[in-house]
Amino acid sequence: MKKILIAATVILGLGSFAAYAQDQPISKTKKERKMENRQKAIRLLKAIETGDSGPVGYINPDKYIQHNLGAADGLAGFGALMKTLPPNSAKVNTIRAFQDGDFVFTHTEYDFFGPKIGFDIFRFEGGKIVEHWDNLQTTAKPNPSGHTMIDGATEIKDLDKTEANKALVRDFVESILVQGKMEKLAGYFDGDNYIQHNPNIPDKLSGLGATLEALAKQGIFLKYDKIHKVLGEGNFVLVVSEGHFGKEYNAFYDLFRVENGKIAEHWDVIEPIPAKEEWKNNNGKF
């Protein structure tokens, strides 16, 4: 039950504010809407902490498709769960926020019922949020190189290279993690230069290789089965996939930073996908 409550909170349950979700002024141009959507998502997430009811107006109350499997669809499914959250107990700190067309994706540290790191994806139509996905993982200690799950570069650069960087990262995930073509691995990196934020893997390409080899010797394999989304802005690209890590079937959210056409930095959140009989909606994780 606690896991469901955590998920529902992050997923913008905000059910206690649902009655506020009325039409809000919408920008007149597509450019204005695009510029506003990132801030709308950040404000909506922060409202989990502050209790501000205003940002709930960014959600379309007549069309809100929920992909967090621990919450019922639409706004109405969140009210009862939100009432169990102790007042003034939640903390929300969005570290990174990006836009790709009608999508906004964020990288956030949370604290309710314990610390969590999460990625959230919002799809907008006409300036309103109409669909939401996320992935959550309990915050871990710094990795062997001293990096946390959330620190590192934040500056968005190379906006003119967005599509090229998305293509590079998609090819990396498809070739290496889905198809297992490890002979191509080195070509995606600048030598051994690679900053890693996964809690269990040290920096450098050699550190990644050594960790995967050690896991394989223990009979633990990482295998991606399918890519569902590739979103990016400038030098940052988020890939949403499903697959196996050991015996568990997981959703993988991987954020990459690209520099000079090579993968330079990586963050991720891994969350097990529950059995279908445990789902609170029928929209699926992806």
TrEMBL record:
Span of the signal peptide: 1-21
Span of domain SnoaL-like: 169-266
Source organism (scientific name): Flavobacterium humi
Superkingdom field: Bacteria
Keywords: Signal
Membrane spanning stretches: none
Lineage, uppermost ranks: Bacteria, Pseudomonadati, Bacteroidota, Flavobacteriia, Flavobacteriales
Protein name (record): SnoaL-like domain-containing protein
InterPro entries according to UniProt: Cyclase_SnoaL-like, NTF2-like_dom_sf, SnoaL-like
GO biological process per UniProt: polyketide metabolic process
